[in-house]
Amino acid sequence: MTTQIPPAPAPSPSSSPPGRALRAGELGTPHYRRLFGAGREVTIHWLTFLLTAALVLAPVVPILYQSIRNQPLYAAGGAFTLGNYARLFTEAGFGGIILTTLLFAVLTTAFALAIAVPMAVLLERTRFPAARVIGQVLRWPIYISPLVLAFGWIVVYGPAGFLTSALREGLGWVPWNLYTLPGMAFVEAVAQVPIAYLFCANALASSDTSLENAARTVGAGPLRILRSVVIPMLRPPVLYAGLLIFGTAVETLSIPLILGEPAGLTMFSSFLYEEGIDAVNPDYGLLGAASTFMLLTTVGLVVVQTRLLKHAQRFVSVRGKATRSDLLDIGRWKWAGFAFVGVYIVLGVLLPMAALILRAFTSLLTPLVNPFELLTLDNFRLIFEYAPYTESITNSITVALIGSVAVTLFGTVVVLVARRSDFRLARLLETAAQAPHAVPGLIIGIGFFWAFAWMPGGDLVRGTIFALIIAFGLRALPSAYGAVSPATMQLGSELDNAARVAGADWWRTVSRILIRLLVPAMLASFLLIWTQMIREYAPAMFLAGAESQVIGTTSIDLWTQGETGSVAALATLQIAVTALVAGLAGLLLKGKKGKNHA
């Protein structure tokens, strides 16, 4: 007689250990650990939202609170008052500062658009010599800090600049003066031109040209088409770029500090710098009121930008059946356009950068002496022999490296929660992630300075590179969101559905499928944020301690000491590091895209 052993029962869903995914062939669905009775995806959603909200509110709340207190917020006692705002417009002369700042911003915007819009039209809509190469060169200033570009302009066009001295020696006079409001605005505009150019060029490159073809059929010539069809269609990108440049000019610190202060011109940012850093006994109430006013101004600009772009659909020119036409031939005018673009590239960007680099390797830069007879490495020697200067380079690289990785990872999670989950506050999370775009870097520095002084244990963070990583990271969070969000929207929802059918929860779907597909976008985000953070310095003006200075703050210190050569050396090192990382990241990104296409 044979004894039959009954088959083992099929494993039930509960027989799989918690937290372990089932292997192929196993039945049931995986179980995941629960925190406080909630699934881990709910926990991740709420932690992401709360952390984002805390980061956004941390620098804002202390500023608003300090603006209505008559004592420093970390001091005992004190009372609520609106006297800080009254003193701001009576004793501090803030009304004149507002007018100066607004005029500076208007001139900067007008100069930048007057240069960028014609260049975009010429390169994208006309038969232009070497258009593709020139288009790439026009993007280079994006990787250069406006502070560095300003130093280069002073080396060439300043009162003792190379070209200024040459003209004064040859002609006896100089037709420009950087230490005036129009001169300052023009220098700032040169740094902002690539932003406006990219907005306009991208809009032209992706638009349908059926209207241009229609204009041709009724006998319109190339110049008439450009004037009556192409340029009017650029209203949305011009408006967006103009408001963005205007807001940047309102909050910028580099130009008002190194050009405006010697000329006696005070603006929003330089006023905050003088009241908060240069003052022996800072008036924190006045500083809080001024910071609040500047914050409300920038937020208002973003709101106006959103409202004005509501009706941008009137200018839609990319339809389902898009057509492309031949580029317009403007005849001999193309050489005038070529000269226009060449003057900006050579005199506005390449010459200042070349002169700055040359100044780093010379003891003096003057047209009266051959620069190659004055070659020296003393400027670099000063940087590397003095520990605080060397530490500033190390700190900048460390903050940029850690910050770009952390912000890219966190920004990716924020995008996935906001765009690929059923979190009920997803829309509010998206708004919070993009909100720092409206907060100037100087305001972030002041706000976190007070937040760390106010919160328990904040002294352990204040004055360290961790404070800089937090502040710089918050400043860069909208860039990470903007870099990853479009790529996320291109991923079909069937990927999520298939994973859910197989038993995966939201986090397993995200970590095993979506994030891997988003690697190219994350690499692009890393490069973008690295470039932004290696150039950043405004929050560090308030947050950096003696051992946590960055390249920007050290450059300003050296400039005030008259060490022009050392400033040039430090700027040259910053350009070299940025170019190296941008090149490596570009190669890595290109290789990753190639693998994905294969």
What does this protein structure show overall?
- The structure is a single chain.
- Helix 9 crosses helix 10 and helix 23 runs antiparallel to helix 26.
- The termini are far apart.
- This protein has a domain of 276 residues: Orthogonal Bundle (MetI-like fold), CATH 1.10.3720.10.
- It has 26 helices and two strands.
- By secondary structure, it is mostly helical.
- Strands 1-2 form a two-stranded antiparallel sheet.
Order of helices and strands: EEHHHHHHHHHHHHHHHHHHHHHHHHHH
Strand order of the largest sheet: 1-2
Question: Which architecture of the domain at 95-318 and 325-376 does the CATH hierarchy give at level 2?
Answer: Orthogonal Bundle
- Name the overall outline: globular
Between the first and last Cα atoms, what is the distance in angstroms?
63 Å
Number of helices: 26
Write down the CATH class of the domain at 95-318 and 325-376: Mainly Alpha
User: CATH topology of the domain at 95-318 and 325-376, which one?
Assistant: MetI-like fold
Radius of gyration: 28 Å
Share of helical residues: 55-70%
Q: Give start-end ranges of low-pLDDT stretches.
A: 1-29, 312-323
For the largest beta-sheet, the strand count, sense and barrel status come to: 2 strands, antiparallel
- Total strands: the figure is 2
